[in-house]
Amino acid sequence: MLGNFAYSNPTKLYFGEDSLCYLNEELPKYGKTVQLIYGGGSIKKNGIYEQVITLLKANGKVIVEDSGVMPNPTVEKLMEGIQIARENQVDFLLAVGGGSCCDYAKAVSVSVHCDENPWEKYYIRFEEPACPIVPVGCVLTMVGTGSEMNGGSVITNHEQKRKIGHVFGDNVMPKFAVLNPKFTYTLPKGQMVAGIYDIFNHICEQYFSGQDDNTSDYISEALMKSVIHSSRIALQNSEDYEARSNIMWTATWALNTLIAKGKDTDWMVHMLGQSVGAYTDGTHGMTLSAVSMAYYRYICPYGLAKFCRFAVNVWQVEPKGKTDEQIASEGLSRMESWMKELGLVMNLSELGVTEEMLDGIADGTFLMEGGYKILTRDEVVDILKASM
Amino acid sequence: MLGNFAYSNPTKLYFGEDSLCYLNEELPKYGKTVQLIYGGGSIKKNGIYEQVITLLKANGKVIVEDSGVMPNPTVEKLMEGIQIARENQVDFLLAVGGGSCCDYAKAVSVSVHCDENPWEKYYIRFEEPACPIVPVGCVLTMVGTGSEMNGGSVITNHEQKRKIGHVFGDNVMPKFAVLNPKFTYTLPKGQMVAGIYDIFNHICEQYFSGQDDNTSDYISEALMKSVIHSSRIALQNSEDYEARSNIMWTATWALNTLIAKGKDTDWMVHMLGQSVGAYTDGTHGMTLSAVSMAYYRYICPYGLAKFCRFAVNVWQVEPKGKTDEQIASEGLSRMESWMKELGLVMNLSELGVTEEMLDGIADGTFLMEGGYKILTRDEVVDILKASM
């Protein structure tokens, strides 16, 4: 654990099949008017909406509806949410959904009492909020992003063809999150596996950096092994409580800052995937899976020792009698097989990306420091081509 | 992750070789009079005392000294600390030391404004504080107990021959903890290895229970592997920053409630070790190591599958061609070899325990539920005998 860092995480988690009832403990802490944020209405079909409404009413809340949050929340939707919050003078934002709803709720929370353009302020200039923040709570119905216990918020601007994430501070993080694994049972398989790969990739993004032998790396390997193991069970039986609960818990710990401690990170797969998302509106996890193998195979020689460790510790590659290159390559092949087993999107063409888009996608990809190599724009284009 | 649970941890950690300066951020949040809690004065020799005093004075604090906290803090010392706090109307308790100082600070914090006898109230009747709590901060100079990020507080009553731990709630946990790996460099080797085994045993206590395949178990294995790896490096070079920093970070995460989530626990090695401690005043980690092998070998058949997993995942035992009993046994043998390599106390006689004490130690051992088997008093006596 090299370097200096601070760690704290203010979000309170309520986990388990009975966890929704803890809204009764949390809701009284906040004001009367609650903006209820959700997506396309699946929570009305599976009964979660009714349960939440009942609890809100039992706690004497005035409910302001804010539905239709899309998988990649847009600037236009954000402006709509801010207007709803202002007009109704809401005291609390309750997001019921997946990462998109949580991300969106945070974006609304920092913008309600701010006169500036939120896209410009937070997603272009990366400034911190100087205004009062409307507190956020989450009821999770889809796992992957870890947004329930972090300050991350990704917003898409289709006009500018940009999908950008801002990581806000502790004060913007959800006050609490309700994690009920059963709420994820009715998720379509495609979304489940996209979420699983999102989790796995969050861990990889933080794992693949640094030369030191770091406790964070051991924990990262543990989370990867847990999610690989449980993903195979969930694929066979999407209502296996144990598997779904392990996936849900792993998702939270994969991206609540813990495993990044003592590490540098560049988040390049997310930079690539987010730019792809701005062009295709593809499911977040699938934009990551589509570029991952080309990226990792390209970057592998620059972090060979760590890719060997990954192969042996995560994928149980037998190292005896093999060169480092062979060990690392075998690890990546096993990772690729698992991704195919899950049914992930393995190339950009499948997401509707055309050769003509590649220049624009490369232009929209932030070139970050912190990994094994700072990519050039040409290298980004090469990786994108290899992902087609 | 079976069962329902809540997770939150309010302690803020400042980690790294420059972390002490963060006292400048934290001290202004609390009142003027600070009770400075420390042990036998080693912090005066290694310069940490001077650095802390300088920072306290720079922040305009009135410093009230409370030194002489012993490795196993006693009820008598606790009463003294309470009196110091009351007489000086202290606003804040700053513990500079290891787990003993942190544990003691928490015991003082819940007792200053409470009229009842703290030993009776907290350590015999296990009640929660109903009085105002004096906030606690920690500057860690010895690692092992995890007391810097949990609510645990162990106090010893020599008259009653009882050493008992109370785990207080979030409100009693340290507000912040400063973790500077360099502050542990000057620790005598015996204390370093006792702390390392304390860490390892904390993980074992939480790992060895439950039938489910749990993300907490994967994280536990990661922490065990990290501490085993770093312990060997620190044993060769006690000033290897990377090793000491990994050990320090692992200690915190081994006992800040994370890896207990979704698990039942009985903490039987601690129950045995604490009773031994009440009779011998032995170093905490050494009282654990002295009873561990006899305990785990006794309990192994009741949790065979987990002991096999432990052997393969933590100790790299090759399972091929072996019975489960052989695999599990080989894992425990490798653990024993590592303990001997560290130079831990491996039997009770070395701690000064005599045959005549065994009945008393057995009487002082709480028989807990939550592990693979609820021990009877006779079984406790057998384990103690096998540990002689």
What are the SSEs and their pairings?
The structure is a homodimer of 388-residue chains.
Chain A: E1 5-15, H1 23-26, E2 33-37, H2 42-45, H3 48-58, E3 62-66, H4 75-88, E4 92-97, H5 99-109, H6 118-124, E5 136-140, E6 152-157, E7 162-167, E8 176-179, H7 189-207, H8 215-236, H9 241-254, H10 268-280, H11 284-299, H12 304-315, H13 324-342, H14 358-363, H15 377-386
Parallel strand pairs in A: 1-8, 2-3, 2-4, 4-5, 5-8
Antiparallel strand pairs in A: 6-7
Q: Overview of this structure, please?
A:
Chain A is of the alpha/beta class and about 400 residues long. Chain A has helices at about 25, 40-45, 50-60, 75-90, 100-110, 120-125, 190-205, 215-235, 240-255, 270-280, 285-300, 305-315, 325-340, 360-365, 375-385, and strands spanning about 5-15, 35, 60-65, 90-95, 135-140, 150-155, 160-165, 175-180. Chain A has a six-stranded parallel β-sheet with strand order 1-8-5-4-2-3, sandwiched between helices. In chain A, helix 4 (about 75-90) packs across helix 5, helix 7 (about 190-205) packs antiparallel against helix 8 and helix 7 packs parallel to helix 9. The longest helix of chain A is centred in the middle third of the chain and has 22 residues, at about 215-235. The two termini of chain A are about 40 Å apart. The interface of A and B includes residues 5 and 225 of A.
